[in-house]
Amino acid sequence: MVNMGTSVGWKNCDGLRPVILLVEDEMIIAFDLCDRLEDSGYDVDGPYPSVARAMDALANKRPEAAILDVQLTDGDVLPVADRLVEMDVPIVFHSGHARPEVLMKRYPDAIVCAKPCAVGAIESSLREMLIDQA
User: Cys-Cys crosslink for 129: which of 36, 77, 85, 90, Cβ 3.0 to 4.6 Å?
Assistant: First the structure.
């Protein structure tokens, strides 16, 4: 459950800020997203630039949601997305290289935001997914 007051100061059912897994290999984009998400009341786990590092992170904890770039330093992010689906974690794909219709066919509950995408659109997508989970 999420405290729905405003996005700043949101809390998960444990009274903590929702944790968002960030998997992005372009560091300028990653750090900008981190700053904006933290300013909006989320804790960010990442950024992870590779499938291997993201999978290691998922072995230790379950995030409330995830933002995934599709093309990473060691291949495409699909193994991470598959694991997140198994864990019932909502996904926002944030990519300039992927075809949304292909992602939506494989991950029908995911949201696809094509790069460049305003951070506000990503935040809205996260809010929508977290509300649906509550």
Answer: 90
